[in-house]
Every structure is written in C-alpha cells, then in structure tokens.
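Re: beginner question about structure tokens

> Can someone show what the tokenized structure looks like for a real chain? I only ever see the sequence side.

Sure, here's an example I had lying around. Input first:
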Amino acid sequence: MSLVLFNAGFRVDFQSCTDNKEEFLQEYFKLSTNAKLAHFKKLASKAEFSDSEEVLFKLLLSIKNDILRLESRLENEQNFLKLQHSSFVCAVHYEYIKIKDPLLKEEQEYYFRFRLEGEDMAFFVRAIDEKLARIEKFKNDDKILYDGFVANMQREFLKERKKDSV
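And the corresponding structure tokens:
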C-alpha cells in the first residue's frame, strides 16, 4: 500500500525536541484557542434554540472566537519559542506531513508549529526520512482542524484527477 499525499503550502517552524521536551510542551499547551470555546459548544449542544436564537448564538461564538484568536496571537507573538528550522509543508496526509527541504533526521522527534486557517497549532512528529514525518502527539481540537484541512486538499486532488481523466 502506498501513501497518497495531498498538495499543501504553508510555513512550518520546527526543532528537534529530544533534549528539552518540557519547554516545547509548555508552548504546545498554551496554543489552545479552540479549547476555550469547547465548553460553550458542549453546553449549546444540550440546549434547544429557536432558529433566530441559534443564528445569534453562532454569531456570538464566532465573535468570541475572533477575540480569543486576537488575544492569543498578541500574547503568543512575543512568547513563541525561537525554533531552529523553517520550511514549507508541501504535502499532507491525515497522519503525515511532508516538508519541502531535506532537514529532518530519520527517527528523530520534532516539535512542529504552524498557522492553519487562522489558528496557531503545534504537533509532535517523528521523522520517517529527511522530508516526511508522522504525527505522534496533537490536541484533539487541533487535529480536527488539521483533518478538515487535509480533507479539503484531498477533495481538490480528486477534482484535479477527475478533470485530468476526462
């Protein structure tokens, strides 16, 4: 079985985390804007709204999300760890990330930080080879967002493939 990767294009900052993993874990847990809204979403799933109330709730949730993102971005911009390497993610899969430059060392663990759809997120990965890494640790909210992005890239891939076969 071969692995099918889907084209992507976003910047990633990363560093080997073999020695000082605690420092990376602190930043990893700070990057959690989505988790702050999970409580409200859970409460809303148990409540019954009229159509207009549901629209208002979604609007308020969206505004709150935007405010949390701005606050998080302002706070984290000054507090992000300076990571040793930077590259571009050229391909993605649900469990894998491929970077453009051959900067990884096989079997080494790395801390990857990137911005996707307006969210700062981080994963811990293990290098398969000098460009490909397998995702090993992630927050559930970040993984949901990442998987949604991969699904969109997969749809684009299938559309292009269908167009090319016609």
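Each token stands for a local structural state, so reading them left to right follows the chain. The longest strand covers residues 6-16.
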